[in-house]
Design a protein that fits this description.
Elements lengths: L18 H16 L21 H7 L5 H8 L2 H6 L27 H4 L3 E5 L2 E8 L2 E7 L5 E8 L7 E10 L2 E10 L2 E10 L2 E4 L1 H7 L5 H11 L4
Antiparallel strand pairs: 1-2, 2-3, 3-4, 5-6, 6-7, 7-8
Helix pairs in contact: 1-2
Length: 229
């Protein structure tokens, strides 16, 4: 009758638990509640790592039960990730904004859709202004009745912006439209240079004429800054 060669091997020796390791493990568990340093009872194990307070993970590592590499590998495994239910891990507050709102319909409507034009005529120049609550707009109207918004901005609810003067001047081969607007005694001139698709605000020329006394003063100041046609 054939015999199994493995039956001739000596039986495996079952390792007995180490009393020192059991003592260290119990001390590490107690450390979670007392927050006291874990001290080994065996002087021969003094070279081993000691646990000096921290998290439960540090307690396990300090007791030598699990290696750091093993914990990292387990935490990145699909089994661990699938075991964590969605939403159970709090996300950083800065990841989200609590003030986000739907942008549709939040932009104020154009003034020409909600307010009639208050016309202002100066010779051949036709301009106008619209006042709506805390906003205003200044417009140029061409001979076909088409409007171009020259200025827009905010104002006081009780204030009403008006156009009080305008003049068209030839300057350095370009047409410059100067418009005075404001409310009450607060009036100023703004200069707009004609380009391919209409008039564009010129901050440089506006700084030159902003406090001009009248249209003739505007012409004189522009003529002094360049060759007037």
């Amino acid at each position: 009758m054939p015999t199994d060669p493995l039956m001739n091997l000596p039986p495996d020796r079952i390792p007995e638990p180490s009393q020192d390791r059991m003592t260290e493990t119990i001390a590490a568990a107690q450390q979670l509640f007392t927050r006291q340093p874990v001290k080994s009872t065996d002087e021969a194990a003094a070279f081993r790592r000691q646990f000096f307070g921290g998290t439960w993970m540090e307690a396990i590592l300090g007791a030598g039960l699990v290696t750091a590499a093993g914990i990292i590998a387990f935490s990145l495994s699909p089994t661990f990730i699938a075991a964590v239910p969605p939403g159970s891990v709090p996300l950083p507050a800065e990841t989200f904004r609590t003030d986000m709102q739907e942008t549709r319909g939040m932009r104020p409507p154009d003034l020409d859709m909600i307010a009639p034009l208050e016309p202002a005529t100066f010779g051949d120049l036709q301009l106008g202004v619209r006042n709506v609550e805390d906003r205003f707009g200044v417009y140029l109207v061409d001979d076909k009745g088409l409007e171009q918004q020259l200025l827009s901005g905010n104002k006081g609810v009780q204030e009403a912006i008006s156009v009080t003067d305008a003049v068209l001047t030839a300057w350095n081969g370009q047409q410059v439209l100067s418009v005075r607007s404001g409310f009450g005694d607060l009036q100023r001139w703004d200069a707009f240079v004609e380009e391919q698709f209409g008039f564009t605000l010129s901050p440089t020329l506006s700084r030159i004429i902003w406090d001009a006394a009248d249209a003739q003063d505007v012409r004189d100041r522009l003529a002094a800054t360049g060759a007037s046609d």
